Design the sequence.
């Protein structure tokens, strides 16, 4: 076998060397012999220079898979997409093939330890072909980073809204209870005389212990990861204490403003949840506020929303401060306790009615919002309210609108659905599906 | 096809179980149906003031947060107030408390025998059902409204009180009152409620559903009062409108020993004296003695059913009072204050 192969290679070598001279190929000769025809002189032309021989492989590869900048401007290479590019050379190694052979000096070392490695055949790997095909199919299809729903940010795998863990410890001080959330991660550019345009990443993060301690900061770096780390550690150095009401909401309603961003914040009872801008929601989660409603008017620039909100939180007053500020008692009246006046805070010296200014407001909400009035739009009727089908539905539903209550009343009164007419019309009874077990017993 | 009879059987069993749940409580109902009417005594000013004192009003309990039946808690209303405004709102709340603590009237069970207005035997057999005529003029009291019935046999007579109540509720519905009394007043459910210490709820609902002179109201309230008295659950009704009628019920039935014991054990001797004063007022008896304790002792000797326990409690109270006095003396001596 080996001898035969050697012969074939020799023949091919001859072919290439004597290409310029017309030579009858030995195969043709062999054909002549078999057919017993008279020898015919034939020419076999070959071209030894072509496009694929002129250039090295890497340049050829680049030519196929990419377009030059100038070419791109002219609109070339539009059909090139990474999905179509498949490097079939990958996984093809000389000396490794279908037959799992050990070739000393090619696919294995010649000497292993003190022994000479012998050329031998190992058992075949049945999955090899399959693996190669899979690798080729996977080529060009880049998978998106898949995050678990818990780890996700505001949108998919983007950074804003995602948690990046507690800040790094400083000496012995650790930030175990802390959590850091990204609010913004963007590319910023700087122009310099010497360097030209330089690109960096800027990150804004908030960190907090979910118990009224929080801070925010911005960090810039070449790499997004570094920017996030810088911002996170800087935020840990700028913690502020935030007053909470019963550990679940803000102390009172307030209005706050930073730049063109205006925020109205409402205190809410337990179980209400966070109904606000997503940046405010993220900040609240980090601080430990669980119930709140906030309305942002004007610009919703995340940076400004964050600053305005922190400003408002840090300006919160205690009831005592409010009472002292107004010179009046602060009283809570609750519908559940028949509006019994529950005095929450009293000033050291209380104003008299005659001392109050004529236009002074006693309204608590107005005091909290600093006299600002929230724009309340009238809710639009739902889109279907004018549809004919909806009117039809209403007309049909009108007959059964009280049915449920009547049914419940009958059930509580009689233990079944029956009325004063049931005895008169015994056939009009509620149908009860018979129980399966009973049926079996009967049969 | 074979499923039809089964269906009926199911319904029948259901109906059976529903009717057959009735089980009597351990307590028998006690009505105010004797010869003497408790009404005049109950409305007596002195009795009313004694009952109010015994109620021991705690505004925190009167105005505690209740569930209003709304889906969400209402938003608390905050207000800034001057001293005068605060005082005024507190006064308003006090007045509101008086309304909230109004004791449900204690009166005799009503007996209305409907008077027959006319008998027209010519109308007999004309109609298959009764006809009720109601005067629904605006501004007439429910009790004074003219309601008459033409029976199928031709008699025209005044409606009996059950029918009156139903017709009044139909034309002038009262909030929370049902045409048929709710099942919670049936014995088994009532027992369950009492075991869960929902006495106030039971009495409140009974007040809405029934009139005070209805036998059903007196049955429910008397059972509830007996349960409280037996289980010593007086704290459940204190500072509510029902404590007054509870005390009146116990005094009327000469069964105040448990309450008296409770008052002495908690060192509320003044209230014990008030209770005995109420007893002597209602039953027209006198207990001699100058001090509070002496009166209580004389009551224990002459009218009590639980002499032993009461005497022990009085003895214990005396000892506690004595040791307190001694302690005070000791403290005063330590501070260098000597009695002159």
Sequence:
């Amino acid at each position: 076998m080996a001898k035969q192969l050697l012969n074939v290679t020799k023949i091919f070598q001859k072919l290439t060397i004597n290409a310029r001279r017309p030579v009858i190929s030995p195969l043709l000769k062999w054909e002549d012999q078999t057919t017993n025809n008279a020898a015919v002189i034939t020419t076999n032309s070959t071209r030894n220079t072509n496009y694929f021989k002129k250039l090295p492989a890497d340049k050829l590869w680049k030519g196929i898979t990419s377009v030059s900048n100038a070419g791109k401007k002219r609109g070339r290479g539009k059909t090139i997409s990474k999905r179509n590019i498949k490097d079939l050379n990958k996984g093809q190694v000389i000396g490794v093939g279908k037959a799992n052979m050990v070739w000393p000096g090619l696919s294995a070392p010649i000497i292993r330890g003190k022994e000479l490695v012998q050329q031998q055949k190992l058992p075949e790997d049945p999955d090899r072909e399959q693996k190669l095909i899979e690798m080729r199919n996977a080529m060009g299809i880049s998978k998106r980073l898949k995050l678990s729903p818990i780890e996700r940010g505001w949108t998919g795998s983007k950074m804003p809204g995602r948690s990046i863990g507690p800040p790094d410890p400083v000496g012995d001080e650790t930030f175990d209870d802390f959590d850091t959330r990204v609010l913004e991660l963007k590319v910023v550019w700087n122009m310099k005389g010497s360097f030209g345009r330089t690109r960096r990443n800027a990150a804004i993060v908030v960190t907090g212990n979910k118990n009224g301690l929080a801070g925010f900061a911005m960090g810039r770096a070449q790499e997004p990861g570094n920017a996030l780390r810088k911002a996170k550690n800087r935020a840990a150095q700028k913690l502020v204490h935030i007053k909470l009401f019963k550990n679940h909401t803000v102390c009172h309603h307030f209005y706050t403003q930073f730049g063109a961003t205006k925020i109205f914040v409402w205190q809410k009872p337990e179980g209400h949840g966070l109904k606000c801008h997503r940046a405010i929601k993220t900040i609240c989660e980090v601080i430990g506020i669980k119930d709140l409603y906030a309305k942002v008017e004007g610009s919703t620039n995340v940076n400004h929303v964050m600053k305005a909100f922190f400003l408002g939180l840090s300006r919160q007053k205690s009831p005592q401060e409010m009472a002292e500020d107004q010179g009046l008692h602060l009283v809570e009246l609750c519908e559940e306790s028949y509006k019994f006046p529950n005095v929450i805070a009293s000033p050291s010296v209380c104003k008299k009615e005659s001392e109050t200014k004529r236009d002074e407001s006693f309204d608590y909400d107005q005091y909290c919002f600093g006299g600002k009035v929230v724009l309340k739009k009238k809710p639009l009727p739902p889109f279907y309210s004018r549809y004919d089908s909806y009117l039809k539905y209403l007309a049909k539903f009108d007959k059964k609108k009280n049915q449920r209550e009547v049914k419940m009343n009958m059930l509580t009164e009689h233990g079944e659905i029956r009325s004063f007419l049931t005895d008169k019309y015994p056939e009009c009874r509620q149908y009860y599906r018979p129980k399966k077990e009973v049926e079996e017993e009967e049969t | 096809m074979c499923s039809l009879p089964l269906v009926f059987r199911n319904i029948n069993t259901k109906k059976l179980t529903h009717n057959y749940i009735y089980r009597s409580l351990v307590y028998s109902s006690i009505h105010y149906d004797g010869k003497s009417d408790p009404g005049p005594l109950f409305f007596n000013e002195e009795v009313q003031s004694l009952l109010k004192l015994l109620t021991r009003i705690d505004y925190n309990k009167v105005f505690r947060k209740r569930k209003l039946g709304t889906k969400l808690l209402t938003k608390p209303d905050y207000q800034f107030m001057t001293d005068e405004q605060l005082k005024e709102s507190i006064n308003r709340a006090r007045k509101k408390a008086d309304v909230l603590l109004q004791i449900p009237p204690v009166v005799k069970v009503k007996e209305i025998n409907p008077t027959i207005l006319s008998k027209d035997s010519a109308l007999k057999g004309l109609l298959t059902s009764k006809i009720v005529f109601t005067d629904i003029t605006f501004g007439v009291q429910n009790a004074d409204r003219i309601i008459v019935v033409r029976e199928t046999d031709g008699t025209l007579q005044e409606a009996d009180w059950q029918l009156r109540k139903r017709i009044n509720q139909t034309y002038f519905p009262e909030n929370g009152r049902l045409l048929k009394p709710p099942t919670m007043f049936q014995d088994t459910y009532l027992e369950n409620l009492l075991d869960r210490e929902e006495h106030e709820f039971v009495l409140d609902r009974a007040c809405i559903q029934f009139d005070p002179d209805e036998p059903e109201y007196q049955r429910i309230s008397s059972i509830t009062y007996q349960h409280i008295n037996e289980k010593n659950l007086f704290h459940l009704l204190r500072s509510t409108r029902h404590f007054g009628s509870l005390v009146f019920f116990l005094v009327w039935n000469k069964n105040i020993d448990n309450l008296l014991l409770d008052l002495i054990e908690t060192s509320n001797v003044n209230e014990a004296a008030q209770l005995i004063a109420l007893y002597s007022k209602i039953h027209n008896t006198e207990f001699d003695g100058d001090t509070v304790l002496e009166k209580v002792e004389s009551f224990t000797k002459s009218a009590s059913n639980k002499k032993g326990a009461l005497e022990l409690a009085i003895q214990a109270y005396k000892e506690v009072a004595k040791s307190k006095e001694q302690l005070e003396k000791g403290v005063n001596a330590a501070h260098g204050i000597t009695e002159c």
Notes: The mean pLDDT of chain A is 87. The interface with chain B takes residues 269, 323, 326, 328-341, 343-344, 350-353, 356, 362-365, 367, 412-416, 429, 431-432, 434-435, 438-439, 442 of chain A (CB under 8 Å).
